[in-house]
């Protein structure tokens, strides 16, 4: 399944967005995939598998691929607020979030800011998550 690719405006930022899968219905909430700092911007077999049963939203972070607006992002909290704005525009009922590396850090921050927008959370090799008791 080939995704749709477009540029959407989120809080004054033009963001590259791929989406595919079940646009209506499906199992549960849409899935928001947040990529790593490597900036992977290709729809992969992983995304296609998710899209068999879910609507998959795959935006590029500000400053990656064709997404702009990095100059207005000062820290991780700003980036998490960016995704609050994106969810409220594209899936106001909430999403399940899969975050990989940098995307996992953003996903965790997002879940802290607006837990009511995050129905399920999957963190894969997340950066930035600190557990003092882990002593690492």
Give a written overview of the molecule.
The protein has 136 residues and is an alpha/beta fold. Helix content is 25%, strand content 28%. The chain has three helices and six strands, in the order βββαβαβαβ. The chain has helices at 45-51, 76-90, 102-113; strands at 4-10, 13-21, 31-34, 55-59, 95-100, 118-124. The protein has a six-stranded mixed beta sheet with strand order 1-2-4-3-5-6, with helices on both faces. Helix 2 crosses helix 3.
Please name the defining characteristics of this protein.
6-stranded mixed beta sheet; globular; 136 residues; alpha/beta; 25% helix
What does the secondary structure layout of this molecule look like, with pairings?
Elements: E1 4-10, E2 13-21, E3 31-34, H1 45-51, E4 55-59, H2 76-90, E5 95-100, H3 102-113, E6 118-124
Parallel strand pairs: 3-4, 3-5, 5-6
Antiparallel strand pairs: 1-2, 2-4
Helix pairs in contact: 2-3
């Amino acid at each position: 399944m080939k995704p749709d690719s477009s540029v959407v405006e989120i809080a004054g930022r033009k963001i590259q967005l791929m989406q595919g899968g079940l646009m209506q219905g499906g199992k549960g909430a849409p899935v928001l995939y947040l990529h790593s700092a490597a900036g992977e911007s290709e729809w992969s077999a992983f995304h296609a598998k998710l899209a068999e049963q879910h609507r998959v939203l795959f935006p590029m972070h500000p400053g990656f691929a064709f997404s702009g607006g990095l100059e207005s992002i000062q820290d991780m909290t700003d980036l998490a607020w960016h995704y609050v704005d994106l969810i409220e525009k594209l899936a106001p009922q909430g999403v399940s979030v899969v975050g990989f590396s940098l995307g996992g850090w953003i996903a965790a921050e997002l879940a802290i800011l607006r837990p009511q927008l995050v129905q399920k959370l999957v963190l894969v090799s997340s950066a930035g998550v600190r557990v003092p008791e882990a002593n690492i």
